[in-house]
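sry for the spam today, last one i promise. struct tokens for design, 204 residues
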């Protein structure tokens, strides 16, 4: 099994989950300027990370699809709780929210020129995005009121949340009024699997 990644991107979530699972795997770091290369586009026609190549050469793209595949491929890792219908629904609820709502909201911060051609408007775009992300993280903070993990058990959603919180802290999004998110981040950062993934990506 091989994970194609760029350090610190959402592919870090997949890297963490692979560490939690404990299966043998390889990684290949992709340079940003190689994402549109013919070689990489043969593997992932969208030219993005992550990409997962299984042992038989089968390739899967899209972060949430990969996270769910790993959860199903290795049920013994316990990342699906009891693997009941509602346990899986909770995991997917939070994966969907983080991917479709929160992750997407970072767009004006990561690539402001895509949203406005005038550089003089970029600071305002970024500030509006910070406010939007802080708002979107509110339901996640509330979800952690009476639990340590988003789905009620450690799951791929927690790995994805950790990545998003890293971005938030790096880009000046104030989490001072979100102590449960701060506690979740600290809990994840202390996790041995998370530490191994961070080290492997050169982030620690």
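last one done:
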């Amino acid at each position: 099994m091989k994970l194609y990644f760029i350090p610190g991107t959402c592919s870090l979530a997949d890297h963490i989950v692979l560490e939690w699972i404990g299966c043998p795997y390889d990684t290949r770091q992709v340079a940003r300027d190689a994402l549109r290369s013919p070689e990489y586009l043969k593997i992932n026609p969208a030219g993005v990370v992550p990409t997962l190549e299984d042992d038989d050469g089968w390739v899967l793209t899209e972060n949430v699809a990969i996270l769910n595949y790993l959860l199903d491929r290795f049920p013994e890792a316990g990342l699906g709780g009891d693997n009941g219908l509602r346990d899986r629904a909770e995991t997917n609820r939070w994966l969907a929210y983080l991917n479709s709502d929160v992750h997407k909201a970072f767009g004006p911060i990561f690539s402001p020129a895509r949203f406005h051609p005038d550089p003089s408007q970029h600071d305002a775009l970024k500030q509006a995005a910070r406010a939007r992300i802080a708002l979107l993280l509110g339901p996640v903070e509330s979800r952690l009121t009476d639990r340590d993990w988003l789905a009620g058990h450690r799951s791929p959603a927690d790995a994805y949340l950790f990545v998003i919180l890293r971005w938030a802290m790096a880009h000046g999004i104030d989490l001072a009024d979100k102590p449960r998110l701060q506690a979740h981040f600290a809990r994840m950062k202390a996790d041995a699997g998370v530490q191994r993934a961070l080290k492997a990506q050169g982030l620690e």
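DSSP finds ten helices and four strands in the chain. ok im logging off now
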